[in-house]
Design goal:
The protein is mainly β and 282 residues long. The protein contains two helices and 17 strands. The chain folds into two domains: 70 residues, SH3 Domains (SH3 type barrels, Roll); 147 residues, Glucose Permease (Domain IIA).
C-alpha cells in the first residue's frame, strides 16, 4: 500500500512539472536568434520602433538577441543593412534591424488590436480657462506670430509660429523651472534641419512658471542651453531658433499650457495670454 502511494505521488509530481513546462512555453513568445553588429559603439534599445522613441538600454557589439518579429519604423543605415525595419525583442523593446545579424527573416509583427479608448476630435477640444500671467513676462523672440492657434486649416496646431532668423536667441518668457529638454523627431537627428515630412517638435524646452503655467519652445537649431531642473529668469536665453523636426524653415513654435504635464487638453491660445502679460506676440 505504501509503495503504491509513493508511485502515485511520483506520477502526480511529474504531471505537475510537465504542465508547468507547457504553461511556460505558452507564455514565452517564440523567438529567432540574432546578434548585435554595431562595431565600437553600443546599440540603443528603444521603447518603440523609431529613433525618437525613448531609450531603455544599450547592447554591446556581439550581444545575443531573442527576436520576435519586425515592424516598419525610422529608416536607418547600419553596419549590416539599410532598412526601415525594427526588431521587437522578447522584452517588448525594439532595436534597429540595420545593426542585427540573423540567419532567417523575421515575420511581421501582428497589427495592434484597435484601441477602445474614446478619442476626442481636435476641433472640439475646449482649452481650459483661468490661466493668469504671474510676474514679469517677455516675448520669446522678436516678431509676430504667423501661424495661429488651432486655425481652420490647422486644427491640431496647439501653439503659434513666430518667424525668426536661424540662431536668433530664444528667451524664457518668464521666471520658472525647466522641466523638459528633449529631442523629438522621426528623422535621424535633431541636429540637422527637419522638413514637413518629418514628425516631431525637434529640440524643445518646457518651463514651468508660477500660476501652474507651462511654456514650450520648439524647433531649436541644436541642443538647448538649459537643463532639466534649472531655474531661469524672464528674458534668459534658453536656446536658438532653428528648423529641427516638423519644420519648413527657421522659426519658433511657441505654446502655452495651463497645468502640467503639457498636453493637448490644457493648451491655450498664446496670443491673448501674452497680450495680458504685456508681452504681445501678435
Amino acid at each position: 500500500m505504501r509503495r503504491r502511494l509513493t508511485v502515485l505521488c511520483l506520477i502526480a509530481a511529474a504531471t505537475a512539472a510537465l504542465l508547468a513546462l507547457d504553461q511556460a512555453a505558452l507564455a514565452a513568445p517564440a523567438s529567432l536568434p540574432g546578434t548585435v553588429s554595431s562595431g565600437k559603439v553600443k546599440l540603443t534599445v528603444r521603447s518603440g520602433p523609431t529613433a525618437a522613441s525613448a531609450p531603455v538600454g544599450t547592447l554591446r557589439n556581439g550581444a545575443k538577441l531573442a527576436l520576435v518579429c519586425s515592424v516598419q519604423g525610422t529608416r536607418t543605415k547600419g553596419r549590416v543593412r539599410t532598412t526601415d525595419r525594427w526588431d521587437r525583442l522578447t522584452s517588448g523593446a525594439y532595436v534597429s534591424d540595420a545593426y542585427v545579424s540573423r540567419r532567417k527573416p523575421l515575420p511581421a509583427c501582428p497589427a495592434p488590436a484597435p484601441s477602445v479608448t474614446p478619442t476626442v476630435s481636435p476641433s472640439v477640444i475646449a482649452p481650459p480657462t483661468g490661466a493668469v500671467p504671474v510676474g514679469a513676462w517677455v516675448a520669446p523672440v522678436p516678431g509676430k506670430g504667423t501661424s495661429g492657434f488651432r486655425t481652420v486649416s490647422r486644427p491640431t496646431h496647439d501653439g503659434i509660429d513666430i518667424m525668426a532668423a536661424r540662431e536668433t536667441p530664444i528667451l524664457a518668457t518668464a521666471a520658472g523651472t525647466v522641466i523638459t529638454v528633449v529631442c523629438n523627431t522621426s528623422g535621424p537627428s535633431c541636429d540637422v534641419d527637419g522638413s514637413p515630412a518629418v514628425k516631431g517638435c525637434g529640440w524643445y524646452v518646457e518651463i514651468h512658471h508660477a500660476g501652474d503655467v507651462v511654456t514650450r519652445y520648439c524647433h531649436m537649431v541644436r541642443q538647448p542651453d538649459v537643463t532639466v531642473g534649472q531655474q531661469v529668469t524672464a528674458g534668459q536665453p534658453i536656446g536658438s531658433v532653428g528648423t529641427s523636426g516638423n519644420s519648413s524653415g527657421p522659426h519658433l513654435h511657441f505654446e502655452v499650457h495651463y497645468g502640467r504635464p503639457a498636453t493637448r487638453l490644457n493648451a491655450i491660445d498664446p496670443v491673448p495670454f501674452m497680450r495680458t502679460a504685456a508681452a504681445p506676440v501678435a
